[in-house]
Structures are given as C-alpha cells and as structure tokens.
Amino acid sequence: MTDFQNGWLYEAGIGENRALRVADGELVAVRVERGRTGATLASIVDAQFTEQWVAGRSGIVTLASGEQGLLQPLPKGLTEGASVRVEIVREALDEKGGQSKRAKARPAAEGSALTMGPSLLDIIEAGGEPVRTIQAHEPDRLSAFGWNEAMEQAETGRIDFDGGSLLVSLTPAMTVIDVDGPLAPYELAKRAAKAVALALTRFDIGGSIGVDFPTLEAKAERTEVSTIFDQHMAGKCERTAINGFGLMQVVARKTGPSVLEVMQADKVLSATLALLRQAERTQGTGALQLDVHPAVAAKLNHPQAWLDALSKRTGRDVSVEAKGDIPIAGGQIS
C-alpha cells in the first residue's frame, strides 16, 4: 500500500458506504454511512409541529418520513399541527436495546430551500484531502490498512494498545472509557492518554465522554497525562483536569452517531452488511450460496434489493439458506 500514504479511501458498498483515512501510511479514522433519510445532518426539511416539549422553548416535530425530531428553539406563534421548515443539527442516535434519541433540529433560516445534507463522500471530499474510490474487483485496500480490526474494535468496544487496553462503553448519557493493564499506574495512564485521543478521532466519538484512568496521587503526573492527551487529540474538545480518582471528562461536538454506536446499535445488521461485503469480493463463477444464521437471513431478504444488488455486482445468482447452528457473525459463502 505504499502508493497511498495520505487521504481517504472510499467504498460504496451494498447497504453501507465506508471511508478510511490514512496519514503517513497509517489508519487514523474510519467512517460508516447507512441509509440516508430526511433527518441527515444539515438537511433542511419541512415538518409538522406535533407537540410542545418545554412550553415556548422546545417541541416535537414529525418529518414526512414519520421520523420525529426535537425542535429548539420554537418559533414565536408556532401552533401544534402547523408546518415548519427546520434544519437538522444532530442526527438521531440508535442505541442498543432498540432505544433511540430523536434527531435535533432548529428553525431554518428565512428563505432556506429544501435540501438533503451532505453524504459521507461529500464530507470527505470537502475536506480537501485526496479521495480514492475503491471497487470490489480491486485489492482490498480497506482491509490492508486495518479496516477489519477497526470494525472489531467498534463492535466490541475493546481497543488494545501497547501495555493495556481501553474498554469503551456506550450509555444513554455519555461514552465511558475504562483503562486497564498490568503496567504501573503512571506508565499505563501515559500510554492510555495517547490511545484515548487517537480512538476519539478514529471512531468519531463526540458528546460527553468520561475517561477512567488509574489513580495517580501526584498532581504533576496527572498533568503530564493530560498533556499527552492534548498532544494527540486531533479534534476540538474541552476537558477537565484529571482528578485524584483518575477521572477526566471530555466534551466534543456531537452531530451524529459514532462508529461504535452505528456498529453496536444492531449487531445483526452489522454482521449482515459485513457478509455482503465479503460476498461481493468472493472470486469465482457460478451461483453464490450464503449459509447464515436465521436472523441474518431475515435481514438479507428484507430488503430484497441487497441480494439483487449483490447478484448484479457479481454477475452471479445468489441464494440464502438459514441454519440455526451458524453464529450471527459466522456466515459462510460458497
């Protein structure tokens, strides 16, 4: 992969678009885009004001798709049932267990035209770095730069580094990162500070983030660990000092789900889309058979368009067989 050292690799997959950023030949960021609706970031859409939330301050709006959003502030004189044009400022957040946080919206500027927010490809192209689109018949550049390992980290929340590991836990209120490892507390905390900063950028983790470092009694040690975090934190954020119990809080702008939230919200869907990617890259001729867990089979058959796209892209007939003894992430292709 020496021919690509800096920029973005982009892959338009079946049901999922993927991007990986490389700096000096190393993976520094991954992004995943699934199913764009009217509530994508920076979209300007018409909605119906459904109900008051906090009187005179915020309320619920319903988009044409049926998706709801939290509108704040409320335009003066807006009454329930009225139409209002809004701008999406944060996408909806799907959480494990089927819970979901509504998208956030604000009143659109007067005269604003209806528009769909930028796609993943639009966003990375606007950044000014080189963008190379890769196809399934080409070498798997994403995997060569560590895509599969990054996706495993996103799905499990476990990120290993030299001398320790991070366990990233998603909660409705915040993202919590626990530091663990066999090293002495000061050395472990220093290495973890770099790993935390890199992980926040790699997986687009924003919002409120709590980091539980080892307890460090010396203030100078806590200050040094904070400095290491600052040196490696590429995105804009605010943070507290590390307190005597090892806790540091980071706050960064959140405009949508992190890669961890995307991958963990529906693990059956994540396994299904990963299998489609693998199947699209499978060499050979003749029919493709996918032996999968019944839950994955259900995903593959609804929507049928995914299997149709796989058949069209590979030029092969595709069949699916559900087998109860196959793990969700253990689909087989033959």
From TrEMBL:
Question: Where is the RNA-binding protein AU-1/Ribonuclease E/G domain positioned along the sequence?
Answer: 136-251
In terms of InterPro entries, this protein maps to: RNA-bd_AU-1/RNase_E/G
Q: Which domain of life is it from?
A: Bacteria
For this UniProt record, give its keywords in alphabetical order, as a comma-separated list.
Hydrolase, RNA-binding
Name the Pfam families on file: RNase_E_G
- Keyword Hydrolase on this protein? yes
Protein known as: Ribonuclease E/G
Question: What is the native source organism of this protein?
Answer: Parasphingorhabdus cellanae
